[in-house]
């Protein structure tokens, strides 16, 4: 790992994080995640069984914590109180696991984050020793406030959850990335591989997605495409793109020393 993603002091080779919802069954979930190369998988504690119900299939049987970093999230929570309660339960189910994804939603129609409730929940969770990765609006001021609270990563949306609209405001993401001293992950709105590549080319540290893979016609193939897109986008950012020069065409080959040309 010559260019690892580092979150809360732990290194990961993959910069693609994936969700576990909306698949046909646990078998397809496992196959798609294997194809994605992801090492961090996020789980909605209110919707997926990781031990809450002993009589139902357990996701951890197909995605064992010994191999994957399980990232419990608070999808479906609309208040700070509910989010905190949900992650306390997750910590019990996962034997004291501290790394979590916080999201507090504003309404069921847009699933846009409720930032005042998110800030309140983040303060409580950080004080209780959680390592908080937090879904947030693409507001640079809010992102800075979350970093100041002690969150280990900020995860601004590219567009609304499940919309597949891609990155609607790259300028805000760029400001957040330029200012942040913690990892910045694009979360929500990715629709296809090119969206993931653009996020990485902006300098974001990673991308998290679920619907873009699970709702594809072929989720496993899309998972592979996303893996390659994230890797390609990261390589392009590290390489440094050529400057944009509108109306200044330059030949790719030198004009000096051409055969038959005299000065």
What is the structure about, briefly put?
This protein has 263 residues and is α/β, with parallel strands linked by helices. 35% of the residues lie in helices and 16% in strands.
What would your notes on this structure say?
With 263 residues, this protein is α/β, with parallel strands linked by helices. The protein has 8 helices and 10 strands. The strands form 3 sheets. A 5-stranded parallel sheet has the order 5-4-3-10-9. A 3-stranded parallel sheet has the order 6-7-8, covered by helices on one side. A two-stranded antiparallel sheet has the order 1-2. Helix 2 packs parallel to helix 3, helix 4 packs parallel to helix 5 and helix 6 runs parallel beside helix 8. The longest helix is centred in the last third of the chain and has 21 residues.
